[in-house]
Every structure is written in C-alpha cells, then in structure tokens.
Amino acid sequence: MVLVELGVVPDFVIRRGVRYLLQARLDQERRGGVEGQVNYHMEFLESVKSRNIAEQTDTANEQHYEVPTAFYTNVMGKHYKYSCCLFRKPKWSPGKPAQPLTEAEEAMLTLYETRAQLEDGQKILELGCGWGSLCLWIAAKYPNSKVTAVSNSRSQKQYIMQQCVARGLSNLEVITADINDFSPNDHGTFDRCLSIEMFEHMKNYKELMRRVSTWLKPGGMLFVHIFVHRSLAYHFEAVSEDDWMSKYFFSGGTMPSDSLLLYFQEDLRIMGKWAVNGEHYALTSEAWLAHMDDHKREVMPIMEETYGPHQKVRWFVYWRLFFIAVAEMFAWNKGEEWYVSHYLFEKP
C-alpha cells in the first residue's frame, strides 16, 4: 500500500487489485448458498430497524462534503452532479470516459423529472441535495414550485445559495441538518420528496420511510435514486486494511440490495421501479477520474489545503483510487451486478 500511496503503481495494476477485492466481497457475502443468503438478508432487514436512521454522519460529511468546492469544480460536470449520470451509449472501457459529462448529467436530471412526475406549482423536498444539481435544476425548470433542499454540509448550502443569486432563483431554500434530527414542521407538507444517493448513507429505513410519509401530502410521492447490488445487502465496515473505501470514503454507509426498500412499505406503497445499468455509473466515475487527472495542477493545492502538505500526494492518490474502485465495481459483470435503482413510492 505504501507504493500505491506514493502514486507509482500503474492504474492497470490497481484495477486488477480492485477486481480481486470485489470478487472477495462477493464470495464473502454469498456465504451459505441461496438458503444462507436469504436468511442473512432477512436478518439484515430486521437488524436495521433498531439502528439510528443514519450513523457516523459527521465523519461521512467530512469525507466528501467539506472538501472545498473548488475540488468538485475540477472534477464534476457543469451541474456538479455527484451521483450517477446517464449516457447515450453506456459501453465502458477501463480508463476511458464517454460523451461529455455535462450532457450525461442533464440526461439523468431530465429522467428524474419524468419518473418523479414533477409538475410546476408543486411543493418539493429534496433530501441530501449535494451541490444542488437537482434542486437548482427543478427551481429553474419549475418557477412556480417551492423547493426545499436538505444538506448536512455548510459548504454545499453556501454554494447553492450563491448559485440562486447568480441565476436569479427565489423559489429555493436550503436547510443544513443531520437527517437524524431533521423535521420540516414549519414548511408544511410536500407534493414530492426526492432523494438522490442519500439512502445509501442510511440504516433504519423503516423509520426513515415513516418520517418521510409524515412530510408528504396524501397522494404525495417519494422518488429515490440509490445504487444497489442485485441481491446482496451489506454494511460498509472497515474491518481490515483492504476496507480502505469504508474507512476513508463511506463510513457508516450501506450497500442496499435491489429489493431492500420494498420491505418497508408500512407507510408508503411502491408505484414504480426502474433499473439503470451499472456501466452508466462506471462511465460517470471514469469521467471524474479523467477530469481530476486533467486538472492535477489545480487539484494539488486543494489537497494541500485540505489534508496538509505532507498528505497531499497520498490523498490525491486516494481520490483516484476511489474513482477507479467505483468505476470497476459498477462495470462488474457488464453493469448487471451493482447498478442504480429508481423507486417511486406514494402516500395513500
């Protein structure tokens, strides 16, 4: 790992190592054959009901969202979409991004509009708004809608509000809150709630779905975009040095199974469900990696500012490893193993 941290190990070697770890993860989670997997899955579902809605929120926030905005300016597309994008031709090759990232960002944002059944004039809540790709998009496209976005990051709120001023948007409010404590009581109820890659940071889905149902009007809908494994659900836990992604990038995280949310319909009922092949995410992460490499001169001072002069190279490498690992994971089995799922729930 020392040589890797120095940045002297070629990418093709790193990718082989990542694939080895992915296979090891699958072997570990598939223990006990089909009977053992189903039993474990049901035990997993039961166990999360007694946990907090989210865990290690401060650590997870520091790992991604308190890195200076300038870093993401050099990595993401025009809309700062820090989640899976949608490509016209999702054919992945290692180290090769596809069409322009901004175009793929806009394609996915447009797809959300259709699948969430958005209309002008609705009251809309976004949970886990990131750098504002979706809430800013909605506020601009639906000027008669009132949009409330929730983030656990001060820097994200600051950036989004700056964008509101620059774009002349007055129908968007950003609230900084831990999801464990958040309640929009003074905002009334909403027609739509959308969440893009936030549920992977959650644990107690039963309680989360119950709370969301209280924030929706009767007939209101929850749209969720999460990454999933086709059948396995597991926690990201740093139990060995091989679990560096859990330790440095996804503390308190969950890998949901494709069916996980369908077990929590006490308060909201499923109305629609879709899958997005994992190669779309692989191409997204390859694009982030390429942008970071292309802007190394701009990124290295940010690494020094964030992690210190003696850690800047190490963390530049860690971010590259993260993007490579994401790409390799979602490209596995031609995007049919890990991928993205969309769900539309309705409050009866």
Automatic annotation (TrEMBL):
Residue span of the signal peptide, if any?
none
The entry sums up its family as follows: Belongs to the CFA/CMAS family.
Q: Which Pfam families match?
A: CMAS
Reading the lineage from the top rank, the first entry is Eukaryota
- Protein name per its UniProtKB record: Cyclopropane-fatty-acyl-phospholipid synthase
Protein's organism = Cymbomonas tetramitiformis
